[in-house]
Design brief:
mainly beta; seven-stranded mixed β-sheet; globular
Length: about 130
Amino acid sequence: QVQLVESGGGLVQAGGSLRLSCEASGRAFSTYAMGWFRQAPGKEREFVAGIKWSGSSTSYAGSVKRRFTISRDNAKNTVYLQMNSLLPEDTAVYYCAADRLQGRSYVSTIRDEYNYWGQGTQVTVSS
């Protein structure tokens, strides 16, 4: 059983920054890709960013590219999402997720390919 615990959400003004963290436990964290997804009220949960198990490759949604940065520290079993230049449309619940496939050779952007999820952390950006 894998447990993912997110932290770092909050209320910030447009143009500000936040850093989300997700600590994992329960399996070999360093051999699985990790992703961040978000869900705004009335919308589907969408891919935000992902990072390969080794940290050597990342992927971003177009709407966050060049503003958000995903990283991981395998020694701490933690993945991060640094969010800069935040916009009101970034307001959502952000979820950390773990890939279902060990050692995947690429970063998946497909929600169904992640089988463990955190409880979510609220990010609210005021205009």
